Amino acid sequence: MSLNITPSVGADSYRPDIDGLRAFAVLSVVAFHIGLPGLPGGFIGVDIFFVISGYLISGLLKKELVEQGRIDFKAFYARRIRRLAPALVLVVLATLLAAYFVMLPDDQNKLGREVRGVALLSANHHFLQHAFDYFDSDSDLKPMLHIWSLAVEEQYYLVWPLLMWLVFRRWGSGSSGRERPVRGLLSLVWLLSFGLCLWLSLHDTPRAFYLMPARAWEFASGALLAMAPQRAMGRGRAASLAGAGLLLLAGSVLFLNDKMLFPGWIALLPVLGTVLLIWGGAANRDNPVSRLMSWRPWVAVGILSYGFYLWHWPLLVLGRYWGLGERALERDFLLGGVLALGLAWLSYRYVEQPLRQRRLPCLGAVKPTLKTGLWLTLSMWLLGTVSMYAPKHFPWPGQQAILQAKHDAMSFNDACNMPGDGLPLPPRAACMIGQPNAPLRLLAWGDSHADHLMPMYEQLAKQHGVSILRRVYHGCPPLPDVTPVGEGKMRTWCTRFARAVREELPDLKAKGVTGVLMNARWIGYAAEVLPGRPAQTGVVEAGLQGVPKLPGNMIAGVPPLDHASSMRVLEAALGRQAAYLQSLGLKLVLVSPEPEMRYSPAECVARKGAQACNVPRQNVESERAEVAAMLGRLTAAHANVRLWDPINRFCDADTCYASKNGLIRYQDRDHIGATMARSLGADFDVDFRWALAP
């Protein structure tokens, strides 16, 4: 392909080897995201970009300060807008358009929130909350996730030019003397940032990964090289530097992996490798390693690296979303590799270059460019907001069958909400289901799995002329003595809610309640890795104050949030719960885990056909065996407890069915639809009657 190289510096200053280094970085990242075998450390390409950015931009700022004694901040940020905004806005618009036809409204809502984070240069903070572990498989379905790195870079450049200018004005004297205080400042930034990076990597790894202060040392590494005195070297010595850098980078891509503690100490390897490679080229451009990095095809890919990086990830995500969340190497290579590179060339040729060359008046002079940047920020934020809500009201007609299955759910009174802090409990009158004005006899308590059985409870309550109190908090086990922890969060609101429900039990008993119907996705609190899903949540003892003290990163799967510990805590807490209910004279009906599907049945049936969406019963029994055994032991140990197992209504001897006779049984992979729930009533009626009996 033909590319017109138009560097922002003069021809004498242009470094084709740095564009080749950009190619190495972007190809590493894209290969890692595609899942090409043998390149487990490709994610370090982002670290390479950070160092390159620090080197080039700090070098330009230094030149401006030395020659003019000041920084034209307006011009600096106008250049950033021209460089970054055109391709970014194009990719965001294209992603939102494609997502309308590919993604469901709830997921478009999440995408809209991502776009708002992109618009406000806070994508890294957004994903710290909503994609806590960058390397989780759940991150595969977040189209704007890769923009976290752009947010980190721009946050750095909101601060660094001002610091440079202040130091030059305060302590600089003479053209050469002015660089020393800046090097001192950079060294301080490097030490503080790297120290923070090391500390967070050990205690809060995702924050070390996403937050700018923990990454600033990487930009500072490149900036220190730009500020260092430039001394020429012989070809051999320069080649040794550049060759050592290239070996460090290649070794990082080949031997690092996402199971290692990253960034941490090991991030030094790609950062040092990048510094050495740039240094070797600066010392002698004619050294063989720098000439290799200046190979024309490498340079061409490097010139396209920004667009390539922007395009590849949304294409991968949309392809995986359509593929029901699964990776497929051939499809991903075509979308994230071939198509993304082609779109990068088109956007470079017809969007980036014309606008960078100021062919539009709104991106010409500095003042209109800054106004355009503000206008684009506001427009993108508003577009994200529209994308959050419009698809729910105006979904693509091709999604109607899927949405019908997903909306097969019971509606609840808005006043029976889930309070953000777990308190106060919503008023009982708003949370009654069953026969209107009938006596309250049962409490339905649990998480979202209690809610998906609520249509059955309501149907049986009407048949028996009673009412049921709904006490449900999604994502929270109905256990006052535990706190779910995972993804960097302690769900203390769960503990507060559960303790408030426990405190009202004596009053409920006095008002005629005889039993508790309890269902929860127990496996979801056991830090267990299921096919296609990472371990996300474990549980720990809540303690007297309901705020456990935990060391480490609060990542499920890592002690004390490992699977074995979580199962022990769950079983002990359930035992105490049963004993307390028995002391009050209340019965407890537990529900054994319903089968969980590999794919969300509604999408799966629409795209693959019903037969492809079923799962072998043997797999289901294996996944739920440990929880079922725990519930069985609990039932055997307490006379006031019964266990109801609905599995035979979902499965025959060999297969558990996602749909049957045209009815899709599930709203998603593990929540059943209201129609399916009502069909279980006759099976549950015996246990329902038992719970009603005094």
Brief description of this entry?
The chain has about 700 residues and is an alpha/beta fold.
Report on this structure.
This protein has 694 residues and is α/β, with parallel strands linked by helices. It has two domains: 17-395, no CATH class; 409-483 and 491-524 and 570-595 and 616-654 and 664-692, Rossmann fold (3-Layer(aba) Sandwich). It has 26 helices and 13 strands. It has a six-stranded mixed sheet with strand order 1-3-2-6-8-10, sandwiched between helices. The chain has a three-stranded antiparallel sheet with strand order 5-4-7. A two-stranded antiparallel sheet has the order 9-11. A hairpin with a 2-residue loop joins strand 4 (482-486) and strand 5 (489-490). Helix 1 packs antiparallel against helix 2 and helix 6 runs antiparallel to helix 7. The model has no long low-confidence stretch (mean pLDDT 92).
Whole-number count of domains:
2
Q: Biggest β-sheet, characterized?
A: 6 strands, mixed
Low-confidence stretches: none
Structural class: alpha/beta
How does the SSE layout of this entry go?
Elements: H1 16-34, H2 45-68, H3 73-102, H4 105-119, H5 123-130, H6 148-171, H7 179-203, H8 205-210, H9 212-227, H10 235-255, H11 268-283, H12 288-293, H13 296-303, H14 305-322, H15 329-356, H16 366-393, H17 400-406, E1 432-434, E2 440-446, H18 448-452, H19 454-464, E3 467-472, E4 482-486, E5 489-490, H20 492-510, E6 515-519, E7 538-541, H21 563-584, E8 587-591, H22 601-608, E9 615-616, H23 617-637, E10 641-644, H24 647-650, E11 655-656, E12 659-660, E13 663-664, H25 674-679, H26 681-692
Parallel strand pairs: 2-3, 2-6, 6-8, 8-10
Antiparallel strand pairs: 1-3, 4-5, 4-7, 9-11, 12-13
